[in-house]
Amino acid sequence: MTARVIRILQAEDVQAEENVNVLVVANDADVAELPLEGVDRIELHFPKFSDGRAFSQAYLLRRRRKFTGDIRATGDVLIDQLVQMQRTGFSSAVLKEGKDIADAQRQFDRYAAFYQADVVTPQPLFARS
């Protein structure tokens, strides 16, 4: 899989987007059974920051279901979650209202590389040439 950079959006950015085929998934849904044909974007919701089920859903959609479209985080999306969101398969996130995109970018500058494998980089550091 090619490296992805998560697209960080604010609520007002989302309203101006063009129409695409979107599948909104509850955070307790079984993603193994979702019909993905023709879907351009899947929105996974974080009802509160401490509910991480959407991380698992994104990972399963990328790794097991081989979904290549946009996986978007919505809901209670905080800046400190964005790096992990990218690592588990999210390609875009709508920040919680009042959060600054510049602060979000600093998180990615702080954590530029990881030892473990993830969805973005499927090999651990020791196995990379």
From TrEMBL:
InterPro entries: UCP030820. It comes from the Bacteria. This is DUF934 domain-containing protein. It comes from Ramlibacter alkalitolerans.
